[in-house]
């Protein structure tokens, strides 16, 4: 599963990835996240450490970063995923920029989208709503290209510690530019949306929610794909079984071609192999639902 | 699933506000309004359109006139997450319709484009409309013969294109008469905006006669980008940016397209009913008696198959009509209270 982080410069994407990784690497509710490359692990942990202990924030990304992670449940690898971080400026660049072109392509094919928006700017700067418009436009274009595939969509209001998120007026103002998109997504069954305030300071808040939300629905989407494939293979095996006769087995052997019996057995083996991939996803998906209990969706 | 595509062309005199309308419309609809969204298929067009809008909102800079080469945009209009229609839009520079500043090639290009246009937007500067409205009331002071909106020539182009389309069996294009800068109407006319608009619509046959033609469906749509006042300026106060009504022209274009689809589908239904009735009658004649059925077996079989196919087609077209009617009904909610002219008659 690929997860794309979308957001303008200084929205807090690079800071988020460090703190999310540090929190999830320690583990929450039996789940943990681990980088496949030690270099990524070390740099993310060090960056998170610098934020928490020294209030030293990472420099904004000057290039696209791709992190290969795996979700573990009680120490067992259950779901590999790739996290894509873009330079904020890519959103405003033309397609002649390789990074902008790659972003457009990744949005069409990724398994989940996390949109980052600076709550402080949304509250204090009237023009910040126009940045949201650009995000919405990218999302609308990407959703058309994706068809009906299950898509988790997280709107992360970063720097939530810099605004009064207990004040309804503040929440209404910062959420307002997203309302048309939220209402549109709420009408669908295949896009699983949530909006969550996130703080990426020395006292991180909700940093685990965006990644776990994406993973939960990414796992559910993968499980649904496998379930559909298993059902198709079982149906194909049943079709083959109906055509299996002793005569067919004999002449297939004689002509050195696969018999309906062997074709059916092949489908059953494939279905079994896919079930073995499917079955370990069920419990983590349910458990993730419990970890995310209280997080509202739209 | 492939969505239908319509061709839209925008016309208007230099300075009529066409380009500003396009930028404002995109800014409004791409953020989402009343459940509708627009995006450009080419992400670079989004940047182009929004750079200009951002400059207006940040610095108060009005966009430059459209360049010599007409700018094409490919928009997708959506309701929620559902794509409804693709709009191939071309914004002709104001001077393209001015006889003195254009070559025959320019005019030919414009006419060719209009002939393939399913919807044509004609931008009229609200200030000029207001001055023209003043002529309609006692003590009016503007000179009708001036025609600063170049309406006579533009209207002629549209009329020619509509006639050419109808002559080739295609429906006439829908027309949106955009009254841009509608915020200035009260200052220019000394009337309330609604009153000035009412007078403009009631007398639209004098200013844009083509909208009263048989076969034409037209919307008169006041729009504004902000409350910028009547002074000529290149810069405005960004805090006065206040877009109104900019999404409605696209809604109308889609609504009109759907009404054409419904009409075409209803004709298909009638044709199916006629064919079905004829086949049914022939079948009942062929089925009378053992020998007749024996000698006409293949014809009976063919007619029975045709009846079955027509039934399936009828069900499909009937479903299309119902879907289109539902969608058109929802779209009409956004157009309520706006004057729509059809075959020369005011519908609202």
Structure in words:
The complex is a heterodimer of chains A (298) and B (348). The longest helix of chain A has 36 residues, at 208-243. In chain A, strands 2-3-4-1-5-6-7 form a seven-stranded mixed sheet, sandwiched between helices. Chain A has ten helices and seven strands. Chain A has two domains: 2-220, 3-Layer(aba) Sandwich (Rossmann fold); 224-291. Chain A has helices at 13-26, 38-54, 98-109, 119-124, 128-146, 168-175, 179-186, 208-243, 246-254, 260-291; strands spanning 2-7, 31-35, 65-73, 76-85, 112-118, 151-158, 191-197. Chain A is elongated. By secondary structure, chain A is α/β, with parallel strands linked by helices. The relative contact order of chain A is 0.14. Chain B is an alpha/beta fold. In chain B, helix 1 packs across helix 2, helix 3 (104-115) crosses helix 5 (151-167) and helix 9 (248-286) runs antiparallel to helix 11 (297-335). Chain B has helices at 18-31, 43-59, 104-115, 126-136, 151-167, 185-189, 193-202, 204-207, 248-286, 290-295, 297-335, and strands at 5-12, 36-40, 71-79, 82-91, 119-125, 174-180, 217-222, 224-226, 241-244, 340-342, 345-346. In chain B, a hairpin with a 2-residue loop joins strand 3 (71-79) and strand 4. Classes of the chains: A alpha/beta (298), B alpha/beta (348). Chain A binds chain B through residues 92-95, 100, 104, 127, 129-130, 132-134, 136-138, 140-141, 143-144, 177, 179-181, 183-185, 187-188, 191, and chain B through 27, 30-33, 35, 37, 39-44, 46-47, 50, 53-54, 57-58, 76, 78, 80-81, 83.
Quick summary:
Chain A is built from ten helices and seven strands. Chain A is α/β, with parallel strands linked by helices and 298 residues long.
């Amino acid at each position: 599963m690929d997860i794309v982080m979308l957001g303008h410069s200084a929205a807090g994407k690079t800071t988020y990835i460090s703190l999310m990784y540090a929190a999830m690497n320690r583990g929450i509710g039996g789940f943990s996240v681990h980088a496949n490359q030690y270099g990524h692990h070390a740099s993310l942990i060090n960056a998170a450490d610098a934020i928490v202990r020294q209030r030293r924030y990472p420099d904004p990304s000057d290039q696209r970063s791709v992190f290969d992670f795996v979700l573990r449940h009680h120490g067992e690898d259950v779901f590999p995923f790739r996290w894509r971080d873009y330079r904020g400026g890519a959103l405003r660049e033309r397609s002649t920029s390789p990074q902008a072109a790659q972003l457009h392509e990744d949005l069409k094919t990724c398994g989940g989208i996390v949109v980052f928006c600076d709550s402080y700017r949304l509250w204090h700067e009237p023009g910040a709503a126009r940045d949201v418009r650009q995000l919405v436009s990218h999302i609308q274009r990407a959703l058309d290209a994706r068809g009906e595939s299950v898509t988790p969509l997280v709107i992360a209001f970063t720097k939530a510690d810099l605004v009064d998120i207990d004040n309804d007026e503040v929440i209404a103002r910062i959420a307002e530019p997203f309302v048309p998109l939220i209402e549109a997504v709420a009408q669908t069954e295949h896009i699983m949306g949530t909006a969550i305030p996130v703080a990426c300071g020395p006292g991180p808040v909700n940093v685990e929610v965006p990644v776990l939300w994406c993973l939960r629905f990414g796992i559910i989407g993968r499980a649904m794909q496998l379930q559909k494939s298993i059902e198709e293979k079982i149906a194909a095996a049943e079709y083959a079984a109906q055509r299996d006769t002793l005569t067919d087995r004999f002449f297939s052997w004689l002509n050195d071609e696969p018999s309906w019996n062997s074709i059916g057995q092949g489908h059953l083996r494939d279905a079994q192999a896919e079930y073995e991939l499917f079955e370990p996803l069920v419990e983590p998906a349910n458990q993730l639902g419990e970890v995310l209990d209280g997080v509202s969706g739209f | 699933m492939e969505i239908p595509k319509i061709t839209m062309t925008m016309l208007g005199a230099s300075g009529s506000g066409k380009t500003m309308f396009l930028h404002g419309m995109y800014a409004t609809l791409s953020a989402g309004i009343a459940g509708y969204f627009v995006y450009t298929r080419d992400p670079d067009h989004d940047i182009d359109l929004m750079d200009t809008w951002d400059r207006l909102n940040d610095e108060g800079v009005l966009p430059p006139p459209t360049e010599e080469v007409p700018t094409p945009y490919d928009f997708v209009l959506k309701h929620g997450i559902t794509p409804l229609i693709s709009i191939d839009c071309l914004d002709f520079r104001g001077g393209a319709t001015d006889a003195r500043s254009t070559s025959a090639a320019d005019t030919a290009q414009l006419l060719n484009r209009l002939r393939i246009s399913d919807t044509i937007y004609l931008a009229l500067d609200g200030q000029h409309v207001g001055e023209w409205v003043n002529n309609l009331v006692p003590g009016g002071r503007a000179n009708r013969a001036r025609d600063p909106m170049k309406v006579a020539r533009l209207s002629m182009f549209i009329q020619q294109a509509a006639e050419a389309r109808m002559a080739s069996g295609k429906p006439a294009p829908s027309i949106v008469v955009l009254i841009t800068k509608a915020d200035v109407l009260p200052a220019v006319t000394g009337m309330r905006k609604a009153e000035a608009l009412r007078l403009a619509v009631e007398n639209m046959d004098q200013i844009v006669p083509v909208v009263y033609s048989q076969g034409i469906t037209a919307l008169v749509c006041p729009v504004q980008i902000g409350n910028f006042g009547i002074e000529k300026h290149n810069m405005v106060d960004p805090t006065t940016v206040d877009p109104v009504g900019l999404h409605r022209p696209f809604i109308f274009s889609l609504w009109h397209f759907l009404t054409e689809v419904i009409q075409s589908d209803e004709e298909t239904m009638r044709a199916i009913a006629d064919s079905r009735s004829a086949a049914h009658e022939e079948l009942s004649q062929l089925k009378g008696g053992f020998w007749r059925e024996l000698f006409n077996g293949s014809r009976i079989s063919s007619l029975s198959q045709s009846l079955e196919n027509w039934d399936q087609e009828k069900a499909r077209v009937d479903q299309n009509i119902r879907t289109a009617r539902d969608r058109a009904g929802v779209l009409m909610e956004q157009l309520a209270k706006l004057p729509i002219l059809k075959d020369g008659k005011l519908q609202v």
